[in-house]
Inverse folding.
């Protein structure tokens, strides 16, 4: 399937809402955490194929601020999986020149998870290939709220003129500062919503939904999403004629 790709039209940034772990487990008569554990293969496949085809940034919605309201046993298990998977995947990331980063309220994570994440980010920080962002304790509204607070503080302290505030200033105060907005968002499990994910950044992102539950998602499914993206015409408010006149 890789041979069908237009290598001149690979999304720089792909975001994924990894949904359906619990339902996958329930269909198999198992507890929800069984689905979370079996989701790691989908994460690994997605990272590997993105690196292979030349994607620059991959953002994975791993844990939202709303997920803190889940049963404590499930939260504890998720944090344990997070710590173990980070530890296990760092050698592969180093081998494949992949950098690990994160967005979200990292300070709200358990200290052990914070420490492992910090260590992995430092170890992979000089890698120059694909950058993988884990969205942890993240929500789009939380991110925008924090950005506005920082901007208002600068205005009050005289560091920023209110007339200078524009879309770029706002973008520069988001967690994703310096990173291009996603061209493609993938959501698994058949749900048709963005669930408070990258609300500012998804303004012109192409959305791709699949019925597959996340633990069943593999590299060929990501390639199908990219091929679907490449068949679309991205107009950004312009007409088709305007787009073709510039090509």
């Amino acid at each position: 399937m890789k041979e069908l790709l237009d290598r001149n039209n690979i999304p720089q940034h792909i975001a994924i809402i990894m949904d359906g772990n619990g339902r996958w487990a329930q269909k198999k008569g198992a507890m929800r955490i069984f689905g979370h554990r079996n989701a790691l293969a989908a994460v690994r496949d997605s990272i590997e194929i993105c690196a292979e085809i030349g994607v620059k940034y991959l953002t994975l919605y791993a844990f939202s601020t709303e997920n803190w309201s889940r049963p404590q046993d499930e939260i504890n298990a998720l944090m344990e999986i997070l710590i173990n998977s980070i530890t296990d995947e760092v050698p592969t990331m180093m081998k494949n020149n992949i950098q690990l980063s994160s967005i979200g309220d990292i300070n709200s994570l358990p200290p052990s998870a914070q420490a492992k994440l910090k260590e992995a980010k430092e170890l992979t920080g000089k890698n120059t290939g694909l950058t993988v962002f884990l969205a942890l304790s993240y929500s789009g509204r939380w991110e925008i709220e924090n950005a506005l607070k920082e901007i208002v503080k600068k205005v009050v302290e005289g560091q920023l003129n209110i007339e200078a505030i524009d879309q770029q200033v706002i973008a520069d105060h988001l967690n994703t500062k310096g990173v291009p907005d996603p061209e493609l968002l993938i959501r698994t499990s058949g749900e048709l919503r963005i669930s408070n994910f990258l609300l500012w950044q998804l303004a012109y992102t192409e959305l791709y939904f699949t019925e597959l539950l996340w633990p069943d998602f593999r590299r060929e499914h990501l390639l199908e999403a990219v091929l679907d993206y490449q068949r679309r015409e991205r107009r950004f408010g312009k007409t088709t004629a305007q787009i073709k006149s510039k090509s």
Observations:
- The longest strand covers residues 57-64.
